[in-house]
Amino acid sequence: MEENTENFGGKDKMNGEERRNSILARLRQSGAPVSANRFAEEFCVTRQIIVADIALLRAAGYPISADRKGYTLESAGDGLIKRIAVKHGKNEVSDEFYAIVDNGGKVLDVIVEHSMYGKISVELNISSRYEADLFVAKINETGANPLSVLTEGLHIHTISVKDEEGFSRITRKLSELGVLIEST
Q1: CATH number, domain 77-183
Q2: Structure confidence at residue 8 (pLDDT)
Q3: What is the per-residue pLDDT across 2-40, written as a single tens digit (0 to 9) for each?
Q4: Full-model pTM
Q5: Where in the chain is the domain with CATH 1.10.10.10?
Q6: I want to staple 27 with a disulfide (CB 3.0 to 4.6 A). Which of 73, 77, 145, 169 is the partner?
Q7: Are 84 and 77 in contact (CB under 8 A)?
Q8: DSSP notation for 69-81
């Protein structure tokens, strides 16, 4: 399916594959996050096209993270990407995050399988107690519930960790807390 590549700046049009390759190259070179708006300006397309490009790159297996500052590419040198399935209530969110970050991990996202909507995933990018505390404070300030409330506490996290030893420490601590269901 050919996509619509709008051209706002009069620059030569680039097809989608060329643009996605350029996005990857820029993310590899950048030492800081790059926003969708910045990419849209550079490639003379809409922000929506960039968001779709990022989705396609992720679907192709590129570990692209997003936060409020923009997109970053997790490099293979950053260690391992693992998944854990856990189940707990709202009061155990801090303990879960601490078990991960205190043992060298970073919580990349949270995923739930909803009976009506299917897979719902949200990026978190929590790599410290400070960031974990900010997340929990935001939940408390807004009166919001964590996404896992949709599945009675059952959820999956994608985490990055330096090595198997670190992953083993994380899963051991989560087991001690009684929240670990499965790890891969």
Answers
A1: 3.30.1340.20
A2: 40
A3: 344 444 444 457 888 899 999 988 988 887 899 999 999
A4: 0.63
A5: 16-73
A6: 73
A7: no
A8: TEEEE--GGG-EE
